[in-house]
Design a protein that fits this description.
The chain is α/β, with parallel strands linked by helices. It has 10 helices and 14 strands. The strands form 2 sheets. It has a 10-stranded mixed β-sheet with strand order 5-4-1-8-9-10-11-12-13-14, with helices on both faces. A 4-stranded mixed β-sheet has the order 3-2-6-7. Helix 1 crosses helix 8, helix 4 packs parallel to helix 5 (about 170-180) and helix 9 (about 270-285) packs across helix 10. It comes from Caenimonas terrae.
């Protein structure tokens, strides 16, 4: 099976800590800091690697933080290909409030990319891709990158026979769907923003997913519903899975783990039903770990038999 390429234009070094209570003015005494390589596509590559899938994390990187990112990826055994940029790779900071169990996430915009830098990422993605393989583009776009970057990526990859899985939001998501992708993974909030409707009922949510498929914007829609679970929809199939009830250490990284579980199954030739089950197990497994540690393969395997998937009419 060819390697799965992941593309992260705006990666980060994620720092996670905890404090008794988050409040203004006062110094907040924190616990030990955990550092992980981060950004949507990088997180997907981390999970794929743990699941025994060959993945290559293509990403922009610059400065001392970019070098630290490379060290963290190497420590996890994740294959990576960095595109050098002049700016400093960003950091992201998350704090777990022990009193409430809530996570507070502070996300920086990232470095300004020159046209030659984001264009180099497009060129490298097309060059690294293998006909018939899957690629995953995930995360926000940094300043300087065009809104239609993911749309350009989808077209470049389609030209070399690669199917794109996309997990992003806002104008970048809308632009990419106009170009068309293989699979898109919106949250309910993101789907509401796309459609301009409340989507309060399961029937409305299913209809909105089917509309994206009917319009040719995606062959498959994987809609994440948080605590309500997820569903996957194609022209011929629709499946839903309830979220597993597990102790929640942190919700950070559950979406990226869900995407990785889906893609790991699809790359191996599994159908949408089995892919949804594995994605759901991976998302639940991510809830068991603190901060951006993401899911562990043993937890995914243990939780997978507990996932219940049913067909939708």
């Amino acid at each position: 099976m060819p390697a799965i390429l992941t593309v992260t234009l705006n990666p980060a070094v994620d720092l996670y800590t905890s404090t008794p209570r988050v409040e203004p003015t006062h110094k907040l005494r924190c616990g030990p800091a955990l550092l992980h390589p981060g950004g949507g596509g990088i997180n997907v590559a981390r999970v794929l690697t743990r699941l025994g899938i060959d993945a290559l994390a293509l990403h922009a990187a610059g400065g001392a933080t970019g070098r630290l990112l490379a060290e963290l990826l190497q420590a996890e055994g994740v294959r990576s290909h960095a595109i050098p940029i002049a700016g400093e790779t960003r950091q992201s900071f998350s704090a777990h409030e022990q009193a409430s169990g809530l996570d507070y996430r502070f996300v920086l915009p990232g470095p300004q990319l020159a046209e030659r830098e984001w264009q180099a990422c497009l060129d490298a993605a097309a060059a690294q891709s293998v006909d018939g393989a899957l690629a995953v583009a995930s995360g926000s776009l940094p300043p300087g990158a065009p809104t239609d970057f993911y749309a350009r990526l989808a077209r470049r990859l389609a030209d070399v026979g690669v199917r794109l899985v996309l997990d992003t939001s806002g104008p970048a998501l809308a632009a990419a769907l106009q170009a068309g992708v293989y699979l898109v993974k919106p949250s309910l909030r993101e789907l509401r923003e796309l459609t301009g409707t409340a989507l309060d009922t399961p029937a409305q949510q299913l209809a909105a997913c089917r509309a994206l498929v009917r319009l040719g914007q995606a062959e498959v829609v994987a809609l994440s519903l948080g605590a309500e679970g997820a569903l996957v929809v194609s022209a011929q199939q629709a499946w839903t899975a309830a979220a597993l009830q597990v102790p929640v250490a942190s919700t950070i990284g559950a979406g990226d783990s869900f995407v990785a579980g889906l893609v790991a199954s699809l790359a191996g030739g599994a159908g949408l039903r089995d892919a949804l089950a594995r994605g759901s197990a991976a998302a639940a497994a991510a809830l068991l770990t603190s901060g951006t540690a993401l899911c562990q393969a043993d937890d995914v395997a243990r939780l997978l038999p507990q996932v219940r998937v049913r067909a939708l009419e």
